[in-house]
Amino acid sequence: RTPLNAIIGSTNLLYQDHYLDSQKQMLEILKHSSEHMLELVNDILDYSKLEADKMELANEPYNLQELLHKVVTNFRGPVAAKNLELRTNFDAVNGLVVMGDEMRLHQVLNNLLSNAIKFTSEGYVQLEVKSLMKRSTNITLCFSIEDTGIGIAPEKQHHIFDKFYQTDAETTRKYGGSGLGLAISQYIVQKMGGELKVDSKPGNGSVFSFTLTMTVEATRYSYIEEPVTKFE
Ligand code: ADP
């Protein structure tokens, strides 16, 4: 990853600097392709960990609400660029601090949301987190990512979690990708004790969802009253 990060960093510096008008398009290609290459390398590195069952999950306290805000914020630009609506509802986790692997949950949500945006050309993408059960020390949450995109044919739905699977060659040509995102996400969700599921109708969009029981870090409930940004 180090040489790729150097390429991306230098490209970004060049992009902010003076360049000839005729070089703009080439710089954009360089930026886009090097970032895409880094995504592929990350997926392949993660996939090799998964094959060897070497992925270790952290068990640290983190603020789930803040994580969800971060995830959503990263997608505001891409959603606006495609003229889609971004719907969110995660009031159920207000101020909630849980134990677990923040980075890996971020990765799963990123994967699912970027797919939702990639395969949707009009309508909305939605991230919702509902509380199914609360106990003194743990909480069971259902995470769902819904879109109004192209959907997935029933006979293909159980294959999409396979490694390197893309529904057809046209998808690869049109949307790119490695076909590894869902295999990696499923592996992480299973390691966290859940199961990633899909419900979809071709032409009617898709809903990806998983349920996790998380240990609540009770002593660390946020005690600072911060204004909570409300999304429509
Ligand atoms: P990638 O997105 O890199 O192709 P994934 O493993 O994330 O790989 O997804 C595998 C395939 O599942 C995609 O290529 C696509 O055909 C299908 N897919 C995933 N998410 C969606 C979605 N939200 N809507 C329609 N098809 C999807």
Can you describe what's shown?
With 232 residues, the chain is of the alpha+beta class. It is built from seven helices and seven strands. The strands form two sheets. It has a five-stranded mixed beta sheet with strand order 2-4-5-7-6, with helices on one face. The protein has a two-stranded antiparallel sheet with strand order 1-3. Strand 4 and strand 5 form a beta hairpin. The longest helix is centred in the first third of the chain and has 28 residues. The two termini are 38 Å apart. About 3% of the residues have low confidence.
Summarize the model shown.
By secondary structure, the chain is of the alpha+beta class. 43% of the residues lie in helices and 22% in strands.
Strand content: 15-25%
- Determine the structural class based on helices, strands and strand pairing: alpha+beta
Shape: globular
Q: Which strand order does the major sheet show?
A: 2-4-5-7-6
Could you name the ranges where pLDDT drops below 50 across 5 or more consecutive residues?
Answer: 221-227
Multimeric organization: single chain
Keywords, separated by commas or semicolons:
232 residues; alpha+beta; 7 strands; 43% helix
Secondary-structure blueprint:
Elements: H1 2-16, H2 24-51, E1 60-63, H3 64-81, E2 85-89, E3 97-100, H4 102-118, E4 124-134, E5 138-147, H5 154-157, H6 169-175, H7 181-191, E6 197-201, E7 205-215
Parallel strand pairs: 2-4
Antiparallel strand pairs: 1-3, 4-5, 5-7, 6-7
Helix pairs in contact: 1-2, 2-7, 3-4, 4-7
The structure holds adenosine-5'-diphosphate.
